[in-house]
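To assess whether the prediction recovers the assembly geometry, we first specified each molecular entity separately, as shown.
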Amino acid sequence: MGESEASARRAWVRAVLEEYEGPLLRYAARICGDLERARDAVQETFLRLCEQNENGLNGKLPQWLFAVCRNRVLDVHRKERRMLAVSATEFDARASREPDPSVAMEQREGGGRVLESLACLPANQQEVIRLRFQNGLSYKDIASVTGLSASNVGYLIHVGIRELRERLKSEPWP
Amino acid sequence: MKTNLNANDPRLTAYVLGELDEKDRAAVEAALARSAELRQTVDEIRETADLLTSELAGEPIPQLSNERREAVLQVAGNGSRYHAGATRVEIASEPISAARKDMSALRGGHATQAGLETASASPATSHVAPGVRFRRSYWVPLALAASVLVAIGVSYSLRPTLSRAREFSGGLAKAHLDQSGRAVHPAISRLGTPAPIISTPKSAPIGVELRKTNAMEWSSRAANSVSPSSAPAQRVDSSMLASAMAGADQLAQVQIDLGLLAGVRGRVRDYDSQWLTMARGAALWRDGENPAEFGAFDAESYDQILEKPFVEPRREPLSTFSIDVDTASYSNVRRFLSQGVLPPPGAVRIEEMINYFEYDYPEPDGEHPFAVDVEVAECPWNPEHRLARIGIQGQFLSDDERPQANLVFLIDVSGSMQPPNKLPLLKQALEMLVRELRPDDSVAMVVYAGASGLVLPPTPCRNKSAIFAALSNLQAGGSTNGGAGIQLAYDTAEDNLIDGGVNRVILATDGDFNVGITDRSDLVHLIEEKAAGGVFLTVLGFGMGNLKDATLEKLADKGNGHYAYIDTLAEAEKVLVNELNATLVTIAKDVKIQVEFNPEQVAGYRLIGYENRALAAQDFNDDTKDAGEIGAGHTVTALYEIVPIGAPVPQWESVAAAEPGKVEPWTLRVKGGQSKSQKVEMGFESEVSSVYAASNGLKRTNAGQRMVRGETFEQLEEGESDDGDADVASGREESGDQPALSDAPIDPLKYKTVDELPAEVRQELMTVKLRYKEPEGTTSTRMDVAVIDRGLTLDQSSDDFAFAAAVASFGMLLRGSAHSGDFDYTDVRELVSTALGRDAGGFRAEFVSLVDRAASLVSRQR
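The predicted structure of the complete assembly is given in tokenized form:
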């Protein structure tokens, strides 16, 4: 690889890193609940990006990044699960219907009632909602990230939002 | 087309989100046209979607470590970490080669090192069989093993060697303290002077051996990794290491004490839980995990800001507010933008953004401690409107004119303060401050966490090395009890009180006051009481993810002090070195501004920003009402957008909810000239702010304004509903404990009998009245400035005027203000490019880059 090609590639990766490092980490940390593991996954995602052709990813960069990142997180998760002999049911139950008490307390302080309610949704709804509203991905993009169908994504988002509306309505405004 | 759509149809959500194709969209629209119920559902979906977007955007963003970034970029430069040319990897099927499997295992070793957030020159790659889970505490042997493997040639190009990676320290320097490239002195020296960090109950040595061993192991690891960290660009890490090194002894000590406590639990029950919390914090840190960092997710809090509508001077001729010299909002907004997110609207306080910058206003002539200058020109975002800029310049003080200082640093050393942009940055910032102090000044230091203690008794600055040593010994760990610490800090300041001097508590924290709500209002009362006794409070906010922005602003407000947010060393230098006198020396207190608008000239006006600084009209002449302070050399700027007579005044109307009897106070629309609707951000009041509201007079302000209207002028229709809503939505109506309304007289209106006035008075746009007290005074002095609009166009206005207007418009855009019309980021950019002026320090140029960043974020969202 020539010198100029190398520096062009580095500039590209650096730009992508700058733009997506934070969003990917935030997303990955949400999935695995562990910031250090999320960092592993995000770093690995960018390492894989280094092997990609910039033009080949034209127009589908965000979904590619989120998809690779998601797979990396889940890989680690699966591996850990095997190692720790945690049963699958227990793992799935971790996507709890109640927010972590300390998080909940903080959020009451901060007033983030929407986020507090969001934390009570099933994990798959939370995930697609975050991809949509935090990262601006379309239904189709989310489908390619999560492996769900686009209509399934639409259904999850719809049900999630309905649940949030109900929760926000059920408690009177202060 | 007849369709069967019910409220549970996912297409409704897809419709709101713009995800439908033409056919489905037509179907939904047809159904909506027929059903009010569906329309309401769609409105609610939209509202929830908007809420989600804005709340989720405010979530803190974690970062990769520099080492990890370096590693990636190095690989990017080499083409491939496998030396095998680029392989295309598809989303659906990623070929997993043997090499890649090795890589994932290898990555673990790498992560271990990065987790410590320290620097090591040895490549931290290790070769471990897949499936083996290693604990972070085995770091040293792993790293050694790794070096051996690397040495015998099992080498990948993924090597986060710091020497090569230094080229990458610009662009992404989010966590870097040296963002602006200024010289920074790592606090490596002054090690090994252990100071008693916290007073701890001592007793028989039980369990000492075990704890000590852990601490020793930890400290040896720290020592191991500190050796190569002398590269100049490694400032953050090395200073952190230095503190880690310095703290190793203390950590051992703390843990020994913990062992003791565990052994004598029954006797020290009161301390027990606090210490156990602290123990957890320390242990987690030792293992390279950062409890605060992840736990702090979601924890930032901001008050919601209600944007004020235009007011007609015929109905309400007086606008009264307290000045505000805080600048924290700007640095905080900068932090959000540099992390690639738009700030939550509640974090954008426009007056603080404007006041972040320096302006060249005329200096005072000696009669008053500050001068007032008013400039009126065309409003950039609405050429039909005028913009009036009120500029206040406080008198300058040279260093030797500054009175002797008695400073007490009150430092939060709770677990959440561990990240490099908190305690380590704080130490360096305070060190910079101490360097600026005169030998006759004195500094004391109080820390607070699970318990609080005096770590440095009042020490004259003749002996700065003792102060530096105490600073470098600070350690983070434990939960926060701000209340006890503040009490101790104030007591220390009062014991050492200097008459006529600068007596100040400097609170440095991320604002994580984990104390009960009652304590919080006690805290505010305490701060108010001490400010009355001559000890003022300055608040320095640090870090992210846990920042209680509104809490800190209010604390400083109550304590006659100001609040700055320190995100970089450059920012520390600006606040604590360049503006030291402004930070320390108050030249006037309780500075209030009241503007009377002339209805002959002004059809409508609105104050830009200062939403949480509004006062009732009668508060202006009431010397018992607290207001803002001006420090030496401070400038304060306030902007009014003015609708001249003849132009239509944009009106707000509240939109009643579809549900009868239920008011939706947060949906307001602009009618008249503009059709844009805005969701006014409010309603998510935290318990904290409700408590503050009870004690800080916000409620009184609202009620007071209404009463003024009721007594003096005819009732406002639009304004009334707006104000009432503000009370209901923020819960302040129920907060009780309402301070008595001021019965101070309101000045007779100058422009009320305008027909009888001389022609030159009738031409006046407005009169700006200021009241202030001398720092030790109890009665106020008043000054009046009459303002005439000379009809300046934007081109004729000064650079400072255009720049302040640009910052205001930027803030309005970030807030989603309905007042900004078609003005967009490109317009801000254009406006500011002609208004950079001298720009000493490059702060205005930095602002330009923030505008660009916000513009690109917004365009990406679309």
